[in-house]
Amino acid sequence: MKAIWNGQIIAESNETKVIEGNHYFPPNSISTEFFKPSDTHTTCPWKGVASYYTLEVDGKRNTDAAWYYPETSELAKQIKGYVAFWKGVAIEE
Q1: What is the Cα–Cα distance from 66 to 89, expressed in whole angstroms?
Q2: Distances (CA, A) of 29 to 56, 73, 74
Q3: Is 26 in contact with 32 (CB distance < 8 Å)?
Q4: Of 41, 34, 32, whose CA–CA distance to 67 is shortest?
Q5: For residue range 21-48, what is the model confidence (pLDDT) as tens digits?
Q6: How many CB atoms lie within 10 A of CB 21?
Q7: In which domain, by residue range, is 65 found?
Q8: Do 5 and 65 contact (CB within 8 A), yes or no?
């Protein structure tokens, strides 16, 4: 699977995990040069507290377009540290 935004592949892996319709990419599959830490956090009742990244590609920003769980509940331990996307990021095979 590939995550693509602004014409750039920002993550690629054959080892994604799908939860609630979202592909979660392993941490080593993202192109870190496009990811900037965000101060945003949200809480999922069963996964835990999510942290976010803002994407920056060719001078364009997509605020909080990627999220991950640095720590998870026991139920979500398989996606700890994995990164998922929204806000116009295309997921393709």
Answers
A1: 9
A2: 17, 23, 23
A3: no
A4: 41
A5: 999 999 999 999 999 999 999 999 999 9
A6: 7
A7: 2-92
A8: yes
Report the residue count for the chain.
93
Instruction: State the total domains in the chain.
Output: 1
Q: Where residue 7 sits, what CATH number does that domain have?
A: 2.170.150.40
**What's at 90, amino acid-wise?**
A
Residue linked to tokens 């700890």: 80
Residues 6+ away with beta carbon under 8 Å from 42: 49, 50, 52, 67
d(CA 87, CA 93) in angstroms, rounded, equals 18
pTM, to two decimals: 0.96
27's tokens: 């941490």
Joined tokens for residue 21: 């319709």
